[in-house]
């Protein structure tokens, strides 16, 4: 099968969606599929990127960055449309990571009869204050764009159960929804559950979505004294300096270690040395970092965003409402006062769940089956 992926890759953009796309591409190529990738941030323009033992052909989608969002969007549409029409006979299915400009461009070409190919889109998240659907917010032709996507996407895959209701509330019919979660690379050497040196860890872009301000406020609400470095924050982003100042103001600066941005191997090392993974997000699709923490055998403390939390039972960790610093403080206190044996038991159950439901090889195979089904359906019409 010839698959075209419309997504940036981690070599150029260090985001969860991009990492997920790369993991899927590698798994598909391991299974003999031919994969190309077009993305907006792809270096010099064309060439290849190494993913594991594979060289993936890539093309850059050109954009004009100056003069505002409108011109940037138009230049993106024209550049991607040109690439798609030039290579339209080179792929059997297009897979877009995000339900945004790429999916809209393909849908428009299909609607006008210029492109005849199966399209599968996967929203990364659907929160109206920053998810994929925020692209349409405030546009006078919102309903027309939703109808275009709803009719031209052969499948819209939902990585989190809560996305279905959110998309329906925004005008999608739901007739072509599929349900395949994100996947994680499984290390078949199990984690070691001896006494781990660090207690709590969180991994992700330091941005408002991730709720780190709520986490710092919750940390300040814990009974003193707090051990130095009891919370490790891995990542970087626009909110970092503001949050460092907040920690100073609330008197918990010494309890936090700002690790900074790390490569994937070092992130996995950090996870392997912690006991509890904290995900205080305001909204989320299905956190890749959370999946990696499950695979490495950590107990979870996460907010209820309708994704990963739907898999977490009480013997695996704590699930709390989003935007609730008091509930976060209570759960954080329980997690940090739990015995290493209890946290290890939770971690073992999380790893079992990761192996059963989220192994990337299994997830990639489910996608391949979905691709084959939508391709076959198009041929029968």
What is the subunit organization of this protein? single chain
N- to C-terminal separation? 20 Å
Which class do the helix and strand fractions yield?
alpha/beta
Q: Report the sheet-strand fraction.
A: 15-25%
Q: What share of residues is helical?
A: 25-40%
Strands in their spatial order, largest beta sheet: 3-4-2-1-5-6-7-8
**Count of individual helical segments:** 12
CATH superfamily of the largest domain: Glycogen Phosphorylase B
Per DSSP E runs of 2 or more residues, the count of β-strands stands at 14
Biggest sheet statistics: 8 strands, mixed
Radius of gyration: 21 Å
CATH class of the largest domain: Alpha Beta
Structural domain tally = 2
Provide the low-confidence segments as ranges. Answer: none
**In the CATH classification, which architecture of the largest domain applies?**
3-Layer(aba) Sandwich
């Amino acid at each position: 099968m010839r698959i075209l992926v419309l997504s940036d890759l981690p070599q150029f953009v260090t985001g969860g969606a991009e990492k997920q796309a790369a993991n899927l591409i590698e798994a598909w190529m391991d299974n003999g599929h031919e994969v190309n990738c077009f993305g907006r941030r792809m270096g010099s323009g064309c060439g290849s990127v190494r993913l594991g033992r594979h060289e993936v052909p890539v093309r850059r989608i050109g954009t004009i960055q100056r003069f505002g969002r409108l011109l940037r969007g138009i230049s993106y549409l024209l550049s991607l449309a040109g690439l798609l029409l030039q290579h339209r006979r080179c792929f059997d299915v297009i897979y877009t990571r995000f339900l945004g400009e790429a999916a809209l461009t393909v849908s428009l070409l299909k609607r006008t009869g210029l492109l005849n190919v199966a399209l599968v889109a996967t929203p990364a998240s659907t929160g109206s204050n920053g998810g994929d659907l925020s692209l349409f917010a405030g546009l006078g032709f919102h309903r027309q764009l939703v109808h275009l996507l709803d009719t031209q996407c052969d499948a819209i895959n939902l990585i989190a159960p809560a996305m279905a209701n959110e998309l329906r509330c925004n005008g999608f019919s739901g007739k072509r929804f599929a349900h395949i979660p994100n996947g994680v690379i499984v290390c078949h050497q199990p984690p070691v559950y001896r006494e781990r040196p660090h207690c709590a860890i969180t991994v992700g872009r330091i941005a408002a979505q991730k709720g780190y301000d709520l986490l710092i406020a919750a940390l300040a609400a814990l009974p003193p004294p707090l051990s130095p470095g009891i919370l490790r924050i891995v990542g970087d982003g626009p909110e970092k300096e503001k949050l460092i100042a907040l920690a100073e103001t609330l008197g918990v600066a010494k309890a936090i270690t700002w690790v900074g941005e790390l490569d994937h191997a070092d992130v996995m090392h950090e996870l392997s040395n912690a006991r509890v993974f904290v995900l205080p997000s305001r909204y989320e699709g299905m956190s890749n970092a959370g999946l990696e923490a499950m695979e490495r055998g950590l107990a979870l403390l996460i907010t209820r965003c309708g994704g990963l939390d739907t898999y977490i039972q009480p013997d695996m960790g704590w699930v709390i409402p989003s935007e609730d610093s008091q509930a976060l403080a209570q759960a954080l206190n329980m997690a940090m006062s739990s015995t290493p044996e209890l946290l290890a038991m939770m971690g073992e159950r999380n790893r079992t769940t990761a192996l059963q439901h989220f192994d990337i090889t299994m997830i990639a195979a489910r996608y391949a089956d979905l691709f084959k089904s939508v391709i076959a359906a198009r041929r029968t019409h």
